[in-house]
Amino acid sequence: xxxxxxxxxxxxxxxxxxxxxxxxxxxxxxxxxxxxxxxxxxxxxxxxxxxxxxxxxxxxxxxxxxxxxxxxxxxxxxxxxxxxxxxxxxxxxxxxxxxxxxxxxxxxxxxxxxxxxxxxxxxxxxxxxxxxxxxxxxxxxxxxxxxxxxxxxxxxxxxxxxxxxxxxxxxxxxxxxxxxxxxxxxxxxxxxxxxxxxxxxxxxxxxxxxxxxxxxxxxxxxxxxxxxxxxxxxxxxxxxxxxxxxxxxxxxxxxxxxxxxxxxxxxxxxxxxxxxxxxxxxxxxxxxxxxxxxxxxxxxxxxxxxxxxxxx
Length: 312
Hints:
Blueprint: E1 4-11, E2 14-21, E3 26-30, H1 41-47, E4 52-56, H2 75-90, E5 95-100, H3 102-113, E6 118-124, H4 135-152, H5 154-165, H6 181-201, H7 213-218, E7 223-228, H8 238-247, E8 251-254, H9 260-263, H10 265-277, H11 285-288, H12 296-310
Parallel strand pairs: 3-4, 3-5, 5-6, 6-7, 7-8
Antiparallel strand pairs: 1-2, 2-4
Helix pairs in contact: 1-10, 2-3, 4-5
């Protein structure tokens, strides 16, 4: 494993746990619905040869516990604000960003609100039910999934979720990067706790997020829509196909399926580095001028929400 340093970024309502590896242009990795940085470790290690790779536990997950409660309807906005603050703390803008699954939804919200911080944003298989032609069916699926969680518990709801997403296949990393038993046990314990938080606070709101398509079109030079090379018949592949048509961006395929960064970390890292390397040169004036500025109102709401969390 590549050596990394870890730290905490103190924000009102949370202390965000993060890890930093390598040297070079900054690359922030926004974790998925399990909220934990560790599954991205092997890919981050591979990328650390070229990039300063920042991984972290999202607000409310693992080593970034909340201090109090928060309005679930503001969580995506707060997640985007947290990512912005991490970049401001650890990187020189603009930076590369990679987000997968729920993390890809956060990444889109980050690009919409803080575009000047972003050089390249790779949005990998966001579960945006809201953009699909059969959105009502999928939003109902998530609503029923929440009810299953409430009535039958996390394990039953997780089984229904994995079946519905077409993810009921092994998703282990290669043997050479498997964690030692004690570290694996610690990660699995964190993720089991995270599942409860995810079902309770995200499972209904994140798939319902409506991206600003008109705004994303103006930022399309910074946006990469990424899907897995397998699993095209399953739900996680579909939202980016709609975004591709509506924004006018081709889909870039990465190794593996929805969690290809876990099952194929080296190949995934190589392909991701290939995408990013072409964009490592500084943005020219033409690329910067005329772009929307940071969403000051969103940042103000986030600060106000965080103050509420701190007092909660």
